[in-house]
Amino acid sequence: MKTKTFILSLFATLSAFFSCNAQTAYKSVDAGEFEKTISAKEEVDLFTTKSGAPVAIHCIKHGSLSMQIGDKWLYVDPVTNAVKPATDYSVLPKADIILVTHEHHDHLDATAIEQLTKAETQLILNPRSSEQLGGKGFVMKNGDSHTALGITIDAVPAYNNSADKQQFHPKGRDNGYILTIDGLRIYIAGDTEDIEEMASIKDIEVAFLPCNLPYTMTPEQLAKAAKSFSPKVVFPYHYGNTEIQQTVKLLDGSGIDVRIRQYQ
Q1: What predicted TM-score, i.e. pTM, was given to this entire model?
Q2: Going from the N-terminus, what domains does the chain have, and what CATH number goes with each?
Q3: What is the C-alpha R_g of the chain?
Q4: pLDDT for 91-137, tens place per residue?
């Protein structure tokens, strides 16, 4: 309870510092409304934008997460029952933005998208995912940039570079995303290995890197990837049965804050 009280108090304090200088002025939400969104595991991490606006990142599971930006909600790869435990998105706040990295069943779920969608929801996804949904959504390819609700969204490469893994995520098909929210830069890598393009990524505060064998990175690859662009905070995610605590040991002394959450 002390942790929860502290989180709510901190969020309420940060909410008072919302700035109208940001591209979009997000309506502040009070601590009571914020409390309703906290899961039983209370796995919520708070960050602030350049002008002091709070961004709350909620761990859901696997490759699925959400971000609360004032009164706006952004979801990444929402999945209902293709990944256990099943998630009922119909009881969660409706999405203002939904990002889908690629079309695999543990990342693209039409039911979850339907449960989260309202009239104003912006669905952003890679070409193959749009095809599987009958042409729905705003399509982004590697290298594309788009602005939604004042958030700059850059689609970046996500692929396998190991000779024995390229069939899982071929180069050029899938997206990672870099979000810039009033100066706060968040990198969601999607399903990828430690590809050379990561070295050109700059000024990342928060990074989500996958560590799910045999499809994405080993702990050693994740550590190498993180060191190549030096984010302030790394969340290993989508890690399945990997011994994920190895990533903490491998990045010890790097200055990178490694946070383990329930992204199994």
Answers
A1: 0.86
A2: 2-15+24-258 (3.60.15.10)
A3: 17
A4: 999 999 999 999 999 999 999 999 999 999 999 999 999 999 999 99
